[in-house]
C-alpha cells in the first residue's frame, strides 16, 4: 500500500508541472500576437504605394566624347647644339626671351667658323664663275664638253663645302631656325663645349600641340576627328578649344594606342611646354538617339536596367546602354521612348511594387509639411 507521504509528493510534482505549462502558455501568447501584428503591418506596407518621381527618355543627337591625358608642346621647336668643340665667349639670350628666326643666341669660338665660311663662300663664287666661263667657251667653239662637265662638278663640290661651313657657322653662333621663346639654355659663359653638346631649346608657344594616346576601341571606324576641348589642372578656370590636326593610322608599339595631335591657341602665353592636359575629344555623333539620365540606370551583374511605371506598378526593363557622358547615356536597345522611367525612389522598389507618381507640386507640398512638423508648427498625430 502506497504511503500517504508518496502520494503527497506525486501530487506536488504534478501541480508544479501544470503551473509551468500555464505560465509558458501565457508568455507565448503576447509574442504570437506581436508576430501577427508585424505580419499584418508588413502586408500593409507592401500594399501601400511607394512615391516615386518619373521622367521620359529624351530624343536628341548624342555626341560621344573620350577623355584622355597628354603633354603639351610648342607647335614649332628647335634644339641647338655645338658643331665643333669650343668655348662660349658670348651669350645673347636667356630663358624666357623672345627671339626671331636667324637671331644669334650665343658665340662659341666663332672666329674659326666665320673664317671657314667666308673662304667657302669665296670658293663657291669662283667655281660658279669658272663653270659659266667654260659654258661660254663651249658655245664659241673654243672649249670641250669634258671641260664644262669638270667645271660643273667643281662648282657642285664648292656648294657642298659652303653648306657644311654655313651649318658650322650657324652652330657656332647658335642661330635659331625658328621664331619663339627660349625654353631652355644649356650653357653658361666660358663653358667649354664638345661637338654635339646641347646649347638652346627654342619653341614657338603662340600655338601649342597636345599629344594623346587613344585606345583602339575608341578610334575604330573613325576617318577624321573634328573638335576637342582641352583643360589644365593648373588653370581650372580656363578651357581651350582644340582642333585635331592629325592622328596616326598605326598603333604605338610601346603604349598600344593611336597617337592624336590637337592644336590649341595660346595667345596670352599662359601655357608652357611640358604641362599635363586633359582632353575631351569628340569621337562620333549618334543622330536621334534615345538618351536617359545616368541616375535612372542601375546594374545587376553585367546587365543594366531601368525601372518603369506601368499601370501603377514598377517594372524592371533590361537595356543595352551605349556611350555616355557626365549626365546621360544613349540607350541602344530595350526602350521605345514612351516609357515613364523612375528617376528617384527606385532603390526601394521591387518588381511589381505599387507606386504613386509624385510631380513637383506634390513633392514640394510634402516637403513643406515635413519641415513644419520638424519645426513644431504642426502637431503630428501619434
TrEMBL record:
Annotated protein name in UniProt: Uncharacterized protein
SUPFAM superfamilies: HlyD-like secretion proteins
Ranges for domain CusB-like beta-barrel: 210-282
Molecular functions per Gene Ontology: efflux transmembrane transporter activity
Originating species: Alkalispirochaeta sphaeroplastigenens
Residue intervals of the Multidrug resistance protein MdtA-like barrel-sandwich hybrid domain: 79-115
GO cellular component terms listed in the entry, alphabetical order: efflux pump complex
Residues covered by the YknX-like C-terminal permuted SH3-like domain: 289-356
Domain of life (superkingdom): Bacteria
NCBIfam families: RND_mfp
Family: Belongs to the membrane fusion protein (MFP) (TC 8.A.1) family.
Amino acid at each position: 500500500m502506497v504511503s500517504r507521504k508518496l502520494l503527497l509528493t506525486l501530487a506536488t510534482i504534478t501541480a508544479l508541472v501544470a503551473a509551468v505549462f500555464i505560465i509558458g502558455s501565457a508568455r507565448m501568447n503576447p509574442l504570437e500576437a506581436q508576430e501577427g501584428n508585424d505580419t499584418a503591418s508588413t502586408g500593409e506596407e507592401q500594399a501601400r504605394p511607394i512615391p516615386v518621381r518619373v521622367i521620359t527618355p529624351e530624343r536628341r543627337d548624342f555626341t560621344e566624347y573620350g577623355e584622355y591625358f597628354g603633354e603639351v608642346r610648342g607647335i614649332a621647336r628647335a634644339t641647338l647644339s655645338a658643331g665643333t668643340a669650343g668655348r662660349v665667349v658670348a651669350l645673347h639670350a636667356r630663358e624666357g626671351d623672345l627671339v626671331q628666326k636667324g637671331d644669334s643666341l650665343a658665340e662659341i669660338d666663332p672666329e674659326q667658323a666665320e673664317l671657314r665660311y667666308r673662304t667657302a663662300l669665296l670658293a663657291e663664287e669662283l667655281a660658279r664663275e669658272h663653270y659659266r666661263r667654260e659654258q661660254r667657251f663651249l658655245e664659241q667653239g673654243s672649249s670641250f664638253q669634258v671641260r664644262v662637265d669638270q667645271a660643273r662638278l667643281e662648282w657642285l663640290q664648292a656648294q657642298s663645302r659652303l653648306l657644311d661651313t654655313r651649318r658650322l657657322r650657324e652652330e657656332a653662333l647658335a642661330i635659331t631656325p625658328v621664331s619663339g621663346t627660349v625654353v631652355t639654355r644649356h650653357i653658361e659663359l666660358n663653358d667649354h663645349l664638345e661637338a654635339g653638346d646641347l646649347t638652346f631649346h627654342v619653341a614657338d608657344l603662340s600655338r601649342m600641340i597636345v599629344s594623346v594616346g587613344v585606345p583602339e576601341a575608341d578610334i575604330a571606324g573613325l576617318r577624321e576627328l573634328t573638335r576637342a576641348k582641352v583643360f589644365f589642372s593648373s588653370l581650372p578656370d580656363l578651357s581651350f578649344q582644340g582642333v585635331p590636326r592629325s592622328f596616326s593610322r598605326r598603333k604605338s608599339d610601346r603604349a598600344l594606342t593611336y597617337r592624336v595631335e590637337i592644336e590649341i591657341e595660346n595667345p596670352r602665353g599662359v601655357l608652357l611646354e611640358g604641362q599635363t592636359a586633359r582632353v575631351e575629344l569628340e569621337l562620333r555623333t549618334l543622330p536621334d538617339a534615345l538618351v536617359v539620365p545616368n541616375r535612372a540606370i542601375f546594374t545587376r551583374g553585367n546587365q543594366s536596367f531601368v525601372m518603369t511605371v506601368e499601370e501603377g506598378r514598377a517594372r524592371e526593363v533590361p537595356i543595352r546602354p551605349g556611350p555616355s557622358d557626365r549626365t546621360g547615356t544613349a540607350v541602344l536597345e530595350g526602350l521605345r521612348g514612351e516609357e515613364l522611367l523612375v528617376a528617384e525612389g527606385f532603390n526601394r522598389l521591387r518588381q511589381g511594387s505599387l507606386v504613386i507618381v509624385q510631380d513637383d507640386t506634390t513633392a514640394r507640398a510634402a516637403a513643406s509639411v515635413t519641415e513644419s512638423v520638424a519645426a513644431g508648427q504642426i502637431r503630428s498625430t501619434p
